[in-house]
Amino acid sequence: MSNPRSIKRIGLLTGGGDCPGLNAVIRAVSKTAMYRYDIEVVGILNGYEGLIRNQVELLDTSDVSGILTRGGTILGSNNRISPLQFPVESENGSIEYIDATDRCLQTIEAHRLDALIVIGGDGTMACTMPIVNAGVPCIGVPKTIDNDIIGTELTFGYTTAMTTATMSLDRLHTTADSHHRVMVCELMGRNAGWLTLGAGIASGSDVILIPEIPFSIERICDYLQERMQSPAGFSIIACAEGAHPEGGHQIISQVVEGSPDPLRLGGIGQLVAAAIEERTKFETRTTVLGHVQRGGPPVAMDRVLATRFGVSALELLMAGEINRMVVWRHGDIDHVDLGDVVTGQRLVPLDHPMLDAARAVRTCFGQDA
Ligand code: F6P
Question: Cβ of 299: how many Cβ atoms within 10 Å?
C-alpha cells in the first residue's frame, strides 16, 4: 500500500511502569508499519530516558517476531525520568532539574523521525505534550495495570494484572480457610481502585478497600466479627495500595524526585491488618502482591486489545489523525485528543455497576452501604 503521508520513519517508545502486552503493541505497530506501509521503526530505549540521551535502535522484523506472548518490553521502560524535570549535575556538583524537551527534539531530528508512537500511562502522555506542542506528530497507546487513564474504558495490561491478582487471592483463600485467619492482600493501582475492585469481585473477597471509598476500621471489624462466626470462619480482604481511612490519608512509601509519578504508595495492608488484629484478636496476615501483578505473559484478551491498539495507532497516524490516543469505548476502538488525557486520572465512579454487584453479594467496603 502507498504511504499517503510520506512518513518514512517513526519512533516508538514504552514509558512508565511496564505491564503485560507492551511487546504485543510494539509488534503490532512495527509489523503494520513495516509490512503495510514500508515505514522504518526506530525503537527508543528505556522510555523518555532514551529520547533524552539519544539511545535508539532501528528495529527489523526479526526484532518484533516471537514477542507477542512475552511480558515486559523489549525496548525497556522507565518511570523515574521525565523530560519535564530531567536531573543534571550542576558545576557545584548539586543536582538541578531541567526541561529536556530540546534534547528529545534533537534525537527526533537526528534520526529523522517523522512521528512518535508513545505507549504509556498518564505520566508518559504528559511528558509527550511538549513534543506535540513542538510540532512532532504523536500517537498515544494507553497502557497500565491501573486502568486509570482518562478517555479509555480499558487499558491493556489491566485484564492480565486482574487475573494474576485474582489467582493470588484464590490461593490466599485456601490457606485462610485452613487456619481460620483474616488475610489482607495489598494490591497495586495507585489512586484508582479498578485493579482491587476487579480482582476482589473475581476472587469473592469479603472486604474490598479502594481509594475512592475511604473506610472505617470499626465497620470492617464489625463485619469480620459476623463473618468469622459464620460457617466460613475466615476472611479475605483485598486492599488497594491507595486505600485510606475516613479522614485519613494514603500511605506513601517513597518519593521519587523528578519522576512523572513521584509518589509511590504502599504499606496500608499492614496497617489494616494490625488494626484488625488489635481490635478483634483474629489471627491476621498480610500479603503484598507487588510487581508480580505487572509481570508475565498477557492473557488472550490483552493480546487482542494490544494488537488492535497497535494497528489502530499506526492507522490513525497514516490517516493524518495526529496527536490522538487510541482508546477502548463502547466495545470498540476509538480515539481522543492527547491533551484531554493528561488532565487527571480515571477513578472508579461511586455509582459504578461493579460496586453495586459487589454490594449485592454482601461485600464490605468498610462503609455503610
Ligand atoms: O502504575 C503502575 C504501578 O504498578 C502502580 O500500580 C504502582 O503504584 C506503581 O506502578 C509502582 O511503581 P514502581 O514500579 O516504581 O514500584
Answer: 18
